[in-house]
Write a structure and sequence with these properties.
This protein is an alpha/beta fold. It has a single domain, classed as Rossmann fold (3-Layer(aba) Sandwich), CATH 3.40.50. The protein is 43% helix and 13% strand. Strands 2-3-1-4-5 form a five-stranded parallel β-sheet, with helices on both faces. The N and C termini lie far apart (36 Å).
Length: 199
């Protein structure tokens, strides 16, 4: 995407370091990836509440919620999916500058999408969390009925059914929600995040 050469970044009087010192923790992006129904959003929101209860600044960017606002104009074509990830990564970069721990719950099915997000956010601030769960279990959990519709051909290009999902090669953390209880998964992610953001 072209960048206007006549626009310069403005530096305010409050730095990221100032916000880190005020908050008592650093900011970072924790990118949850996994197929629909794996538990990304559920885990992220549970962890968000735990961090909030510890007076930490944290926010969940949920795939469905983002598509109701910021990305409501986008389809699910490959080009639109790329733009969806680009937009949320750019927003997360702003949030980290603001001192917020960002938890992003997006399928982001292709490695190239996640690589782009990492490049936008910055290597030092980006952690990939693979929420692993078998397709069989995800289909059993199918509370939205999407897998059923995809199997019936009513939804095209559905990840895991008629569109590919690239599992991460070397994620920073793996959570296996078809083998762990919700409590185990949430505690594992919480401990990982605290280890990365505590001063």
């Amino acid at each position: 995407m072209a960048v206007c050469k006549n626009i310069l970044k403005f530096r305010g009087e409050v730095s990221r370091e100032d916000r880190k010192n005020l908050n008592g923790h650093r900011a970072a992006v924790f990118w949850f990836t996994g197929i629909s129904g794996s538990g990304k959003s559920t885990i992220a929101h549970c962890v968000e509440k735990r961090l909030f209860d510890c007076a930490m600044r944290a926010y969940v960017f949920d795939g469905d919620n983002v598509r109701h606002g910021l990305c409501s104009d986008l389809s699910f074509s490959p080009t639109a999916r790329t733009e969806n990830i680009r937009r949320i990564a750019e927003v997360c970069r702003l949030f980290t500058d603001n001192g917020t721990i960002c938890m992003c719950a997006f399928i982001s099915p292709l490695k190239e999408y996640r690589k782009m997000a990492r490049e936008i956010v910055g290597e030092a601030d980006f952690y990939e969390i693979y929420v692993s769960c078998s397709l069989e279990v995800c289909e059993q959990r199918d509370v939205k009925g999407y897998y059923k519709m995809a199997r019936e051909g009513k939804i095209k290009n559905y990840t895991g059914i008629s569109a590919p999902y690239d599992a991460p090669d070397e994620p920073d953390l793996i959570v296996e929600t078809d083998r762990e209880t919700l409590e185990e998964s949430v505690s594992k992610v919480e401990a990982f995040i605290l280890d990365k953001v505590r001063l």
